[in-house]
Design a protein that fits this description.
- With about 240 residues, the protein is an all-beta fold.
- It is about 0% helix and about 55% strand.
- The protein is built from no helices and 21 strands.
- A hairpin with a 3-residue loop joins strand 8 (about 100-105) and strand 9 (about 110-115).
Amino acid sequence: MDAQLKIWSAEDANCVVTFKGHKGGILDTAIVDRGRNVLSCSRDGTARLWDCGSSSCLGVIADCGSPVNGIAVGAADSSLNLGSPEKAPSEREVGTEGKILLLAREDKKLQGVGLQSRQLVFLFIGSDAFNCCTFLSSTYILAGTQDGNIYQLDVRNTNAPIQVIRRSGAPVLSLLPYRDGFVASQGDGTCFILQQDLDYTLDLTGADCNPVYMVAAWEKQIYTCCRDGIVRRHQLSDL
């Protein structure tokens, strides 16, 4: 890993922007609003905000002192105090107001930070290293750990999880909101859709015990990215 973040054109496959500043491998990225700004996290323990137009770093959002394995950005509930920035944001910083950044940390901590304020909103300690995180809504979030736990939390009160979901002891590698529930993938090849309101689980097959690193969704299709080098497409009926 060369600690560089690159943006590629979907039209001609050229690299249009390269960001430099991290001191360790980049582990995850997130897009702010329509994409003028992007976020990244790294083995160096930082999460950084970048401006695509100027190819520059707008700031270090958090310096955790431990590798940050995953991030997610979302709109915060209006009742949540995100704090105020110590200085006025750059004019190049777009769409950060009212947003919260989640950081899944290697040191067993899930951290919430006000994206514009750069101030700590919450810090939750889990059972093992956090690998991934995502938003279900402006109040509910999910985070998955190395020992197979998926924590559902309310960002307004993270003293205790709403529930802990566990299918196996394999690492939870990715989480994706999907309709009224979410998709999760694990290090043992497990990939499943959980519809929370209906308490209904649908398992996606094909990985054959190889880790499923990432999932993506488009309408009724779920795509999985696996260690065996295959990207699989799962066509779903109405759940």
